[in-house]
Structure formats: structure tokens, C-alpha cells
């Protein structure tokens, strides 16, 4: 497995227009990507001169979210700005910005309709039961999604949308990777990272609130939360107040999935065993 | 502090076992039994005396200090946290 950028890996490079062109399902819509996720969809339009390399890179990075039709709820289209001459230094932030903009639009389209959590999620390959791990930025959601996604189905590394009957609406977006030197984060296709493909109908089984303190050492420490403690999620939700009866929706969710766990941990590897206990062992 | 006090409608409130969480526009607040009871009593305008009587009925009188002073302090906390309680200064 490589941390190389998706747009400069051999497979991604093969998608560049001069070499092979976009997949068949994209022919005829060469300047537009239809991205589906969170039960919605958004059109990304690459009409500016010089945006073709970004289109090729985005096509690969977003392959799992490419829709052939518009979902019932459609977000505002996105006019993608050209990253300049398309060389590496500009492509990385351009792809990161693209991910942020697409995510923002998909979230906005579902405000008031789905419970939208700042969370990653994976599901069991057979049972489709899912683990949702809620955490603020920098607490390890992407690292955990990347790790668990080798044995479980990758659903998202950043945003999870749940409807009122507990169905998770997929958002298998590119994973936003940290780099040791900091700065713009490259976007990696789930396919480049070897993550398992999503089943269309995962259901929520367990929710963990993750905390990764810098000074924490040792094995994960878990605590089951009472309902009132479990619903104190507003900092990690998007526009919760726009949902009808938001706290009661959260409470119903918490009670449906059993005790929500609060988990302090140091290393993502240490959570593999816990995941197996909660939703069953992965493949 | 002046009264009477009345709760304003929160976006949502979840009450369980005498405690609650109140969701306001931009924040939420966890309320213990005292705060939860005050918010419940103040569904219609209430003076500090009304609230003190209601709290004493529910929880008895405090072991130390005056019930009215404890009520005023609790109400001040709720107002400071913006929890659906406002003084009607008409």
C-alpha cells in the first residue's frame, strides 16, 4: 500500500485523458462529475481551461461516489476552479478544496433531513451492521477508517448521515490523509488504499465517541454512556437544530444501538479488537 | 434580579429521570434536577417566591442557607446560560 497521491499513482495516471480517458460511464460528460453521497448528489463542473487534469484526478479519487443519475435530493452545483498549471504543488490543495466544497454541499442538501455526524464508519461485510465513530477533527477518524476498511466495508472517514430508521447513507469519499510535514492533505481513493466496497444498505449498530489525548497511553478505555450523556453530540453534528425533535432523535438513536461508548485511546490498532466485539470480526 | 420568570421555547428538551438537556440555537446545556424543575415550573410566568415554593415542594428545603437565595442562584445560572428562562420586566 502506498501513500502516494492518487493522481500520480499508476492506476490514477492511467485515467488521465491523454492516456486512456475517463471511465465509460463518464464519456459524454467530460467536464462534469456527478458525486453521490449522504443520500444526495452534486454536480462538479470542470469548465475552466486547465481543469482537465484535476477532473482526471477527481474522477479516480471519487470513483466510489460517481452516480449515473441524480439522487432525489440534489445539492447546488459546484463550479470547480482550475488549479493553475496542474502540477503537483497546486493539485493537492485543489483536490482538498474540492473535497471540502463537495462535502459542504452534500451536507447542506440534507440539513433537517438526516442526522449528520462528524464521524467515520465501517460496516461488517456480511451482516451490514455498522460502527460509527464520532470524533472532532484530528482525533483519528481517517486513520481508523483506513485501518478498519481493510477488514470491513468503508463507509466514510469524515461525515455520516443517518435517517430516522437507522439507515446509514453512504459517503465513501476519498480519504484525506495527513502528511508528516503538515500543509495541504492529499486525497486518496479508497481503491488506492485497498478498502472494501460499500454495501448499499448498511445499518447502524454501534456508536463510539472517540477521544485521542496526546498524553494518553495504554489500551483503550471504554465507558458506556447513559442516554443524556450520549446525546451530548451537538459539537459533532451539523445543523442538529434543523432536525425535527433533534434531542429526541439522538436519544432514540442512542437507545436503538445500545449504550453509546466513550472511548479514550492512543493507537488506532488498539481499536481493531473492540470493533470485532461490537460488530463482529472482519474478513 | 427581577421577575417574574418564564421559560422560552427551546429548540428541544430531553428529560430523563428528572434531569435534562436543553438545546438552544447555538448550544446545549445539561440541567440537573433543580434546573430541570425550575424550567418546568416556569412554563408560565413565576416569581422567585413561586419557584422557591415549587422547589421546596419537590426537593424540600436546603440544609443550609435560605431556599429563596438558592433559588435565585439557580435562576441566575439558567439565565446566564441562556437556557430558556427570561425575566419579564414589563
Can you describe what's shown?
Chain A is α/β, with parallel strands linked by helices. Helices cover 24% and strands 22% of the residues of chain A. Chain A contains 7 helices and 14 strands. Chain B is an alpha+beta fold. The mean pLDDT of chain B is 88.
Mean pLDDT of chain A: 83
The percent range for strand residues of chain A is: 15-25%
Compute the number of strand runs of chain A. 14
Helical content class of chain B: 25-40%
Q: Mean pLDDT across all residues of chain B, rounded?
A: 88
Task: Compute the number of helices of chain A.
Answer: 7
Widest β-sheet, arrangement of strands of chain B = 2-3-4
Shape designation of chain B:
globular
What would CATH call the architecture of the largest domain in chain A?
3-Layer(aba) Sandwich
The total number of structural domains of chain A is: 2
* Percentage of residues in helical conformation of chain A: 10-25%
Poorly predicted runs of chain A: 1-22, 25-29
Tell me about the biggest sheet of chain A? 8 strands, mixed
Beta strand % of chain B: 15-25%
How would you sum up the major sheet of chain B?
3 strands, antiparallel
Helix-and-strand structural type of chain A: alpha/beta
Amino acid at each position: 500500500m502506498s501513500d502516494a497521491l492518487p493522481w500520480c499513482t499508476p492506476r490514477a495516471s492511467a485515467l488521465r485523458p491523454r492516456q486512456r480517458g475517463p471511465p465509460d460511464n463518464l464519456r459524454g460528460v467530460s467536464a462534469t462529475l456527478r458525486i453521490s453521497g449522504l443520500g444526495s448528489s452534486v454536480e462538479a463542473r470542470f469548465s475552466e481551461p486547465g481543469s482537465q487534469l484535476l477532473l482526471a484526478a477527481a474522477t479516480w479519487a471519487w470513483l466510489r461516489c460517481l452516480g449515473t443519475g441524480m439522487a432525489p435530493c440534489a445539492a447546488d452545483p459546484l463550479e470547480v476552479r482550475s488549479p493553475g498549471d496542474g502540477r503537483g504543488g497546486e493539485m493537492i490543495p485543489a483536490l482538498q478544496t474540492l473535497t471540502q466544497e463537495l462535502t459542504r454541499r452534500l451536507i447542506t442538501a440534507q440539513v433537517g433531513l438526516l442526522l449528520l455526524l462528524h464521524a467515520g464508519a465501517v460496516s461488517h461485510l456480511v451482516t451490514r451492521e455498522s460502527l460509527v465513530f464520532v470524533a472532532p477533527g484530528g482525533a483519528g477518524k481517517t486513520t481508523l477508517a483506513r485501518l478498519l476498511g481493510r477488514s470491513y466495508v468503508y463507509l466514510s472517514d469524515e461525515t455520516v448521515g443517518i435517517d430516522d430508521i437507522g439507515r446509514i447513507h453512504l459517503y465513501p469519499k476519498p480519504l484525506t490523509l495527513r502528511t508528516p510535514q503538515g500543509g495541504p492533505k492529499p486525497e486518496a481513493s479508497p481503491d488506492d488504499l485497498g478498502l472494501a466496497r460499500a454495501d448499499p444498505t448498511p445499518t447502524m449498530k454501534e456508536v463510539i465517541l472517540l477521544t485521542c489525548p496526546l498524553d494518553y497511553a495504554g489500551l483503550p478505555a471504554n465507558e458506556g454512556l447513559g442516554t443524556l450523556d450520549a446525546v451530548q453530540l451537538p459539537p459533532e453534528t451539523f445543523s442538529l437544530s434543523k432536525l425535527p425533535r433533534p434531542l429526541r432523535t439522538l436519544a432514540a438513536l442512542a437507545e436503538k444501538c445500545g449504550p453509546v461508548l466513550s472511548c479514550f485511546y492512543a493507537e488506532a490498532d488498539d481499536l481493531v479488537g473492540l470493533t470485532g466485539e461490537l460488530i463482529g470480526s472482519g474478513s | 434580579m427581577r421577575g417574574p420568570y418564564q421559560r422560552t421555547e427551546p429548540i428541544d428538551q430531553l428529560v430523563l429521570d428528572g434531569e435534562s438537556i436543553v438545546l438552544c440555537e447555538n448550544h446545549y446545556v445539561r440541567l440537573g434536577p433543580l434546573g430541570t424543575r425550575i424550567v418546568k415550573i416556569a412554563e408560565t410566568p413565576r416569581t422567585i417566591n413561586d419557584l422557591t415554593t415549587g422547589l421546596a415542594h419537590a426537593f424540600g428545603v436546603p440544609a443550609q442557607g435560605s431556599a429563596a437565595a438558592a433559588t435565585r442562584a439557580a435562576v441566575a445560572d439558567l439565565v446566564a446560560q441562556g437556557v430558556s428562562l427570561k425575566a419579564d420586566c414589563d
